[in-house]
Amino acid sequence: MTTQALLSEVQQLLDCDLGDSALQLAELECRPRLLEKSVPAPERLALLRTYSQCLTALKQYRAALRIITEFISTPVRSQLKPEDLEDVARDIANLRWELNEHDLCLAQLRQIPRSHRTAKDLSRMARCAATIQSPDAPELYAELLKRQPNASEAYTYLNSLRGSAGGWRQQYLPDASSYHDVASLIAARSMMLRLEYQPAAAEFQRLGRRQRGNAQIMAQQATCYYMLNDTRKAQTLYELARSADPSLMQEMGVYSGLLASLNDAYAVYQLGNQLLKIDQTRPEGWVAMARYFLVSGQTQEALAIVWKAQTLAPDYAEAYYAEGAIQMESGCAEEAVEVYLKAHALTRSMLTYRGIVEAYVRCGRYKEAFIYAKELAELMPRHASALAAVGVVLSHSSESYDKATKLLHAALELDPRCTEAISALASLYVSTQQIPAAIALIERHLPENESDDMYTRYADVLTLANELPKAAVNYTAALSLNPNNERAKVGYDRVDRLMNPSVTESENEEDAVDAEQPADVEHLAEDGAGAVDFGYSADEMMDQSMHEFEHSDISDDML
């Protein structure tokens, strides 16, 4: 077996999370070749690094460190290029870091010439220096800040020197505007964590004026707009960010979610494919590909791929949020609750709140759904989706229908494109036998919300109204947007049978029009969903979630 084939085979085992098998193969094949002087030095170095990678994957850091130091102490050192020795120094430093030997890690990285140090090298050196309280920590952080003006950790450290025994270290400030930019970036990110997306977007916009063409700033601003349901502006900014930096990975997992929400399977695939070409060790590309399979109706494949993303990055919230959507599509609402909660614990956002509420509602756990919906409404009182979430939960209690209706109307006043409010309000009308009102509602908002789900919902209600030809046209429109929409397929087949009954079945099928309602509409049409104990009265809920509307442009009479 050639060295290249051996290295490839070991890497494949590592990629499949078969670390023990990879190490066994490395022990049998790689280690003996390291001792063969006839093998060229670069080839032996590649074998060494692969062997070390196997040990590191199994957290055998001390053993990996011993193998590397023994190898580099032999005469082979003189046969290696300077850049190869720099890479070895980084490998040793990484192992020292994992072993919490910060002083030795710093000493190892100091062997790399200053002009050859990467931003990652500087970041690790600065952190080690700060950990061991080395006097040159401020200088290292300042050097890092010169290299990356938005390095928030460097700014935070240097800012902490104010008022210390040494006073404010002005000599470490390379450019006052750099710190101003970092302060703005920290403030904007903090606002995003508090779900204050509108001011965060404005802060990113101001920051973008000072740093024109900064792809990361544009991508984060796009995410703010996506959370505010302004998908068009978000998509434009995401694409501008990718044009500015074709290798951009930050926020691309969120962007794939936006494209998936538009059922644009080709765009999701293209994004995922490009991201994987850039870096297969990052989770964003795998998340995008999982969403592609979800949009294509291949949920099992989607699950396998999203689990790969979680393995690569266990703390990447978007991978768990994506799995939640896949589990919901698979009909596994309980599993969806678990992964949505995990995503929420890692990085809470408007999307994680909505996912949790939807999953709890699907499970019939309305009290838990109400708690999260109420919290979202308190955090984002002027956001249509937040009010709609509360309205959706309250709509499942017959005693709260009026309250739910008011909240859903308020959401549509804020944003006529709020699909959750349209769908929930239409379902409320259906459940109270107000079919014409449901039809009028969807017709009024359909031009601004053209999607396969909305066309399907419209066709479902038209079927209840016995407007079968019109229902067939709208089912066809839904399938033209998303050929994998199973509900639209079933609905179209049902309508086709009702419009074209066979001679022997015609009488039975005419009598079965009401019995063959669409599954979701049939469920909503049942009278009396039953009172749900949310732990709060409906009036208390209205006081909490509608407080911001008391002095708004919305009429007080409505409330």
UniProtKB/TrEMBL annotation:
- Set out the biological process GO terms recorded for this chain's protein: cell division; positive regulation of mitotic metaphase/anaphase transition; protein ubiquitination
SMART domains attached to this UniProt entry: TPR (SM00028)
Q: Where are the TPR repeats?
A: 452-485
**Signal peptide bounds:** none
Q: Does the keyword Transit peptide apply?
A: no
Tell me which UniProt keywords the record has, alphabetically: TPR repeat
**GO terms for cellular component:** anaphase-promoting complex
Q: Which InterPro entries match?
A: TPR-like_helical_dom_sf (IPR011990), TPR_rpt (IPR019734)
Q: Which residues form a coiled coil?
A: none
Q: Which Gene3D superfamilies match?
A: Tetratricopeptide repeat domain
Q: Which PANTHER family match?
A: ANAPHASE-PROMOTING COMPLEX SUBUNIT 7 (PTHR12558:SF36), CELL DIVISION CYCLE 16,23,27 (PTHR12558)
Q: What is this protein called?
A: TPR-like protein
